[in-house]
Specification:
Layout (H helix, E strand, L loop, with lengths): L16 H29 L3 H4 L14 H7 L3 H31 L5 H10 L9 H11 L10 H5 L2 H12 L3 H9 L4 H12 L1 H16 L3 H6 L8 H7 L8 H33 L4
Helix pairs in contact: 1-14, 3-14, 4-8, 4-11, 8-14, 9-10, 11-14
């Protein structure tokens, strides 16, 4: 019996190495292109005013003006607190209502369930501009104009996207868990709260992150429904930095940098759950 020695070339590159290099270089190029505005914003926030729009542009400031952040931050605290309040209300109540609706559409049997779900999804195709005027007139009759109610109550009572994602997530949970809970005497709400809801934490994190960013970046809602400066949010505060005849661009960029920090930190901390939740929500149709 003879044995043959296998010779493996040590210096031979992997078969797909050139392709991977091209893909990596392409992705790196687009990453740099998309990061350029962000880098310019941070750079401009640290420059003196006369260097922000100079030609040719420079990314590295001649002197780092950290005082720009303290000047831009003066007076931003009320706007920041309003944004935090609205984001917390939107995230908390939307997760509550969307999870209940998603569980109902995924697990409970009732008449015309599929039709009701189709009608719910169809409402997402109606542009918000169509019902803006009737909505404003309704809120005016209810006394909600110049209050925070229009900025969170309609959102949490119509959680179409959140309901869809959480329905898909609940449908991906094995039926055996729910059946075992029922055999142990758990009620429908007890099964939902103690058994099913912990199984879809990644989907909850994804919906919560998307809701937070939507509320935090909302400019149109406060612009339409709020009149008092004390009730305005961070996007409106950024618009106030733009004067009629003169704009301090470096202070505006410093304020913009401060504004994006909360959603950026949230995404970095919840990135794992965000991606996992989006993936999990699409496993079962």
């Amino acid at each position: 019996m003879t044995t043959e020695t296998l010779r493996v070339p040590l210096n031979r590159p992997p078969r797909h190495l050139p392709r991977r290099i091209v893909v990596f270089a392409t992705l790196l190029f687009f990453a740099v292109v998309f990061a350029m505005p962000l880098l310019w914003m941070v750079s401009a926030s640290l420059k003196p005013e006369n260097e922000v729009l100079q030609t040719p542009p420079t990314f590295i400031p001649s002197t780092y003006q950290w005082v720009n952040y303290s000047q831009a931050g003066d007076g931003l605290l009320p706007f920041f607190l309003n944004s935090v309040k609205l984001a917390a209300l939107n995230v908390g109540f939307l997760l509550l209502f969307a999870s209940l609706a998603g569980y109902g559409f995924a697990r409970l049997n009732f008449a015309f369930k599929n039709l009701a779900f189709a009608l719910l999804l169809s409402t997402a195709m109606i542009p918000s501009m169509v019902y803006l005027v009737p909505q404003y007139m309704l809120f005016r009759e209810m006394g909600w104009i110049d209050t925070h109610y229009p900025l969170w109550i309609p959102n949490v009572l119509t959680p179409v996207f959140g309901t869809f994602l959480l329905r898909q997530a609940f449908r991906g949970v094995p039926m055996e868990l729910e059946e075992a809970a029922k055999l142990d005497g758990a009620s429908t709400f007890g099964t939902f709260w103690r058994i099913m809801l912990p199984q879809v934490k990644p989907a909850l994190a994804a919906v919560g992150a998307l809701t937070f960013m939507g509320s935090w970046n909302d400019l149109f809602g406060p612009l339409i429904f709020l009149n008092s400066t004390r009730l305005q949010t961070m996007p409106i505060a950024l618009a106030l930095f733009k004067g009629e005849y003169f704009t301090q661009t470096n202070l505006m960029m410093a304020a913009a940098t401060l504004t994006i920090l909360p959603p950026l930190l949230l995404f970095l901390l919840a990135q794992k759950y965000f991606v996992q939740g989006i993936t999990m929500s699409g496993l079962k149709g």
